Amino acid sequence: MDTRPIGVFDSGIGGLTVLKELEETFKEENFIYLGDTLNFPYGDKTKEEIISFSKSNIEYLISKNVKMIIIACGTATSQSLDEMRELFDIPIMGIIEPTVQYVKNMSIRKIGVIATTGTIRSGAWEKSLKKQISDIEVVSNACPLLAGIAEEGKATSKESIEAVHNYMEIFKQNHIDTIILGCTHYPIYDEIIKKEFSYKVNLINTGKAVAQNVKKYLSENKIQNKGVKNPPKIILSKKETDFDQKAKNILKSAKKLDITNFY
Ligand code: DGL
Asked: Mind listing the domains of the chain with CATH numbers?
């Protein structure tokens, strides 16, 4: 048993889509969520910058005495997971490995991936998918506008629908019916993306795969918490307008959230 909380981070609200799945999966684990809003967006930054942000985020979460770290960000996973595992002596989980394992069990041979520019540039999803499923065909598309629009709370705006329409074109042309939401901001667009297609598409939310993997990890290592569960603690590196409302919408929480700005 280990009563310490689990640390989760992203550049902003996106990782809350992962936190939501974690909150639903674990009735006895506590979570500390760090939204690095000061450095948002991560999607257009260099690998060196991403490494530096991830390092600071992990140091901060370790200072809060967490038992493991979840990088709830596709961009930070794709460009800094290996480096962070070398730097820190704490279990660190990203969003790519658990999702690829999940996809492996689906026996599909053609898949779409949408993510930030940095993630697509890194090729991390494609490499990981092809390593696990040698004959899979991967069609990737960067969607640079989506994380920013979601962070501004405008995911249902005209601008957003138009952007989604353009980004989905390549998947329609390739008759792709399964798409990995490779950026944790994208589950916010779930309905809008589905409406774009004249056929049924299966959108893979990385948070679900991560939560299952965390469950397995905690149990195999016998580090589950057995005891009181508190609401998640949310910390932002920079105050963001209406963050409380945006977070409530994602977490489907009616209660006031425990949000602290600046650290
Ligand atoms: N939520 C992030 C991701 O999964 C980051 C988006 C951004 O900061 O550009 O990639």
From this structure: 6-94+208-260 (3.40.50.1860), 97-206 (3.40.50.1860)
Q: Is 239 helix (H, G, I), strand (E, B) or coil?
A: coil
pTM surpassing 0.90?
A: yes
Both tokens of residue 208? 């679900």
Centroid of ligand 1 to alpha carbon of 18 (angstroms): 12
> In terms of C-beta density within 10 A (0-12 exposed, 13-18 middle, 19 or more buried), how is residue 95 classed?
buried
Pairing state between β 137-142 and 31-35: unpaired
pLDDT score, position 228: 87
Is residue 143 flagged as an active site residue? Answer: no
For the CA of 183, the closest atom of ligand 1 is: 4
**Encoded tokens for 133:** 């499923």
- Kindly report the protein residue whose alpha carbon is nearest to atom 2 of ligand 1: 73
Per-residue pLDDT at 253: 86
Segment 51-72 mean pLDDT: 98
